[in-house]
């Protein structure tokens, strides 16, 4: 009988719909439980702060509180002295409970702890929380993005594009948010003097990490993508499709300084993609020139009169060491003495 039911089209459809609803309910239940836990931690942290101010609670009281709470709620984890101190820091960092309830409580406690450890600026921390919610980042991905300086690289002040002039709103705003400067390719084991084709092959061979660095929404379409125009062959370095922008993205790699003629070449490729690859439902294709270095003024002049939407960004094969790690590294003198 079960086999007969499964072959009925309407039954199979209803079954899948019910499965989807159950999964959605499970997800909502997890989110709800997480939110209540985060709010509980805020309440505990806020209480500790108040008692420290009014009753001068010290470290010994927190140790005692840890033992008492753990003894009273043996099935609950999270009442270690270390975690209670994080709760105190959490409540001090977000004194407004409504902000916690509306935004901060939407991400797991482990993510919040990492943000407390790694990010000091309030606005930057809120930005990362928003990105975690939007992109469903794991804790490790969040740490990676923080250490790569994603917040700074996403700022409009760093970006050189002509999107606002060549794309309608809100497409121009979304495209502007999508681009970074610089891109960090620290997952590649190649020298600084790498050639363009070698860099391209290395990026493709590490496509998962490359896509993570590009950001949410990029789908790989091909490398050395062939286009024929008037009987002549042309090859695009890297071609992607962006699911949110609903358009193709052409990336040209340059292992030296940016040159103004690169913009003309990219403009040509974008015209070809719009003519031969883009469908009628796709938005206009955009281009990104990735170069080892650029002069900001030259790049701005080069894009000023280009008809197609494009941007210029630099890439790095290694990232700067975070300040918190720099302090723990030995000096040259210390290394020589050892």
From TrEMBL:
MF terms in GO: nucleic acid binding
Where is each YhcG N-terminal domain found?
17-153
Q: Where is the YhcG PDDEXK nuclease domain?
A: 176-330
Q: Where would you find the membrane-spanning parts of this chain?
A: none
Q: Pfam families from the xrefs?
A: DUF1016_N, YhcG_C
The protein's name: DUF1016 domain-containing protein
